């Protein structure tokens, strides 16, 4: 079905021209965004920013829940996991403690990108949360730790939960791959205890317990 519009015109835009359509009867829910920039780098950065903003809106639509930003949720979860790790023993305690320390990377990176002292900022943020200030976060504009909810710095809940879930799945995948590589190395060492390479003749000399042979290229 063809649409109707009040005006279709060609308008100059910088050094080029674009066709502008206005007054559409049934515009629907589709929107076109025209991005302009002085060079390719600026265009790519603008496109990335738009993509990030749309992803945040998408997360908010999928799960309508907002939490404090500024590294507040990550440091709070880190403290709770560290407390839980003290109640565990053995390998589980090490894993939970390492998970808690890994979560501090997010506020650490946020402080570093804001030009703050990351160590001092994260230490102060941890102390504030330990005192019960669960909404304390890194205020990038003021360069200090404040109640981030009062500054209206919020983020969708799905952003944090998805990041933690994807990071955990990635670590599990790496651990599985590392196990496979380790078994391969052990098996290879059992088959070929000694491997010597002669750079002058490009000759691999492999010595095992029962035989010795060479592979030339």
From TrEMBL:
<dbReference type="GO" id="GO:0140662">
    <property type="term" value="F:ATP-dependent protein folding chaperone"/>
</dbReference>
<keyword id="KW-0067">ATP-binding</keyword>
<comment type="similarity">
    <text>Belongs to the TCP-1 chaperonin family.</text>
</comment>
<dbReference type="Pfam" id="PF00118">
    <property type="entry name" value="Cpn60_TCP1"/>
</dbReference>
<keyword id="KW-0143">Chaperone</keyword>
<dbReference type="InterPro" id="IPR027413">
    <property type="entry name" value="GROEL-like_equatorial_sf"/>
</dbReference>
<keyword id="KW-0547">Nucleotide-binding</keyword>
<dbReference type="InterPro" id="IPR002423">
    <property type="entry name" value="Cpn60/GroEL/TCP-1"/>
</dbReference>
<dbReference type="InterPro" id="IPR027410">
    <property type="entry name" value="TCP-1-like_intermed_sf"/>
</dbReference>
<dbReference type="GO" id="GO:0005524">
    <property type="term" value="F:ATP binding"/>
</dbReference>
<protein>
    <submittedName>
        <fullName>T-complex protein 1 subunit delta</fullName>
    </submittedName>
</protein>
<dbReference type="InterPro" id="IPR017998">
    <property type="entry name" value="Chaperone_TCP-1"/>
</dbReference>
């Amino acid at each position: 079905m063809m649409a109707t519009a009040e005006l279709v015109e060609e308008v100059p835009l910088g050094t080029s021209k674009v066709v502008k359509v206005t007054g559409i009867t049934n515009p629907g829910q589709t929107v076109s965004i025209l991005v302009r920039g002085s060079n390719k780098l600026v265009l790519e950065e603008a496109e990335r920013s738009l993509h990030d903003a749309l992803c945040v809106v998408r997360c908010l639509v999928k799960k309508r829940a907002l939490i404090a930003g500024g590294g507040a949720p990550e440091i709070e979860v880190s403290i709770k996991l560290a407390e839980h790790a003290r109640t565990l023993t053995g390998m589980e305690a090490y894993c939970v403690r390492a998970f808690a320390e890994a979560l501090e990377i997010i506020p650490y990176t946020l402080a570093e990108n804001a030009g703050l002292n990351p160590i001092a900022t994260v230490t102060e943020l941890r102390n504030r949360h330990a005192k019960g200030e669960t909404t304390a976060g890194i205020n990038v504009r003021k360069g200090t730790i404040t109640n981030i909810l009062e500054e209206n710095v919020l983020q969708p809940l799905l952003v944090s939960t998805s990041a933690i879930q994807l990071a955990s799945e990635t670590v599990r995948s790496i651990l599985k791959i590392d196990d496979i590589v380790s078994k391969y190395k052990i098996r290879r060492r059992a088959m070929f205890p000694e491997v010597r390479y002669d750079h002058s003749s490009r000759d691999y000399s492999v010595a095992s317990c029962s035989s010795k042979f060479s592979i030339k290229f």
